[in-house]
């Protein structure tokens, strides 16, 4: 979800369906929950491409990790991440959790969401309960990537934002190496408490992507062995990601390295910047 406005089979959900409305402008179809807040979008003629910049940034983990066996997406919205991953990552399975049956129906009817198949499963369930249950019991499930974009019609911050939720996400990630990706509002009162809880749950192993114009900040939190990526390696990887998947990865890498360089200078370290998480 973005604060930008337009002139323009599991457990039942805990909230009723939101009032769902659509709008279109400049070749893009937008999803709203009865307000000006944008809950998702799709290029009408290019549904597999991502129309919103922060949503594209939620693929920023490709700068440091290869596509995993399975991805978990918490919050469907207009299905942009689901469509992109289903189309562009053919060896990766996708689980999607969405609390609103209405959102699922609209995504299928108006936003080109693929039907469930051997790789894709859309679960009508509460995200917090799903994640808490996934890592419990003898049949615990693990994902290499979890992408969380969980906002309601009021847009007062993520609807799942407790320390327990972020710890459950960590427990549901592959212990050999995984990443939680969270969309936050960088200029909102909810940001400080969420970034603090994510840092605590992941023992400080957190990267913040550069803020987008609308104010969203995508946060990456890591499990597994420590990662140290040199400036040269990150730049080369970004070029490869941009060529293969047509994502603006080189701009992301430059921004991350600029941030790493500022932190190094503040520590009195003049060596080439690197990402360490």
Automatic annotation (TrEMBL):
<protein>
    <submittedName>
        <fullName>Spermidine synthase</fullName>
    </submittedName>
</protein>
<keyword id="KW-0620">Polyamine biosynthesis</keyword>
<dbReference type="GO" id="GO:0006596">
    <property type="term" value="P:polyamine biosynthetic process"/>
</dbReference>
<dbReference type="InterPro" id="IPR029063">
    <property type="entry name" value="SAM-dependent_MTases_sf"/>
</dbReference>
């Amino acid at each position: 979800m973005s604060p930008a406005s337009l002139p323009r089979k599991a457990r039942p959900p805990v909230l009723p369906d939101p009032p769902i409305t659509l709008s279109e402008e400049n070749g893009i179809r937008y999803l709203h929950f009865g307000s000006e807040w944008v809950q998702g979008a799709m290029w009408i003629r290019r549904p597999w491409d991502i129309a919103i910049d922060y949503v594209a940034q939620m693929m920023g983990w490709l700068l440091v990790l290869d596509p995993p066996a399975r991805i978990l997406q918490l919050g469907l919205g207009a299905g942009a991440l689901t469509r992109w991953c289903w189309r562009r990552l053919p060896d990766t399975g996708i689980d999607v959790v969405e609390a609103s049956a209405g959102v699922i129906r609209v995504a299928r009817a108006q936003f080109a969401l693929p039907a469930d198949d051997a790789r894709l499963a859309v679960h009508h369930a509460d995200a917090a309960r799903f994640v808490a249950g996934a890592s419990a019991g003898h049949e615990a499930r693990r994902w290499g990537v979890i992408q969380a974009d969980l906002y309601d019609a009021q847009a007062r911050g993520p609807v799942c934002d407790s320390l327990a939720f972020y710890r459950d996400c960590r427990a549901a990630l592959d212990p050999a190496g995984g990443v939680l990706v969270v969309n936050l509002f960088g200029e909102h009162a909810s940001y400080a408490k969420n970034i603090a809880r994510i840092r605590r749950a992941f023992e400080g192993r957190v990267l913040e992507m550069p803020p987008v114009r609308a104010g969203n900040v995508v946060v990456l939190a890591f499990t597994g062995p420590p990662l140290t990526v040199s400036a040269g390696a990150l730049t080369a990887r970004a070029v490869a990601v941009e060529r293969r998947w047509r994502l603006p990865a080189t701009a992301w890498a430059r921004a991350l390295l600029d941030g790493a360089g500022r932190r190094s200078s503040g520590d009195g370290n003049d060596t080439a910047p690197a990402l360490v998480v």
